[in-house]
Please model this.
Amino acid sequence: MKFSIVISAFNEAARIGATVTASRDQNVPRHDYEIIVVDNTSSDNSVEMVEKEFPQVLVIESRENLGFSKANNAGVEKSKGRYVLFLNPDTVVYKDSLFGMVEFMDEHKKAGAATCKLVM
Model:
């Protein structure tokens, strides 16, 4: 598997669907990546919404609010990708941007990390 997308969330039912949809709709073969949502004990039906609307997404339900860093680590532990991308649940992912980042990492073997342009 080429890459894993890890999204840490807490009460993000209203926004996380757009991030998962944009991440899923990249020009990358579906078998080349996975999406993992780590839920930090949300009380707003985030887990139910993701499981219903996006059954291909792996949802990890934490028993406590781990915070952003520990939740990301929990996602990494379950990930299968060669590369891992951490996304906030309100991130807008532009078409082909993930493929471009994977290409960059494949072409620059000495690179240990990469980011992309952030637009506010």
Q: What stands out?
A: The mean pLDDT is 89. Residues 13-24 form the longest helix (12 residues). The chain has four helices and four strands. Strands lie at 3-9, 33-39, 58-61, 83-87.
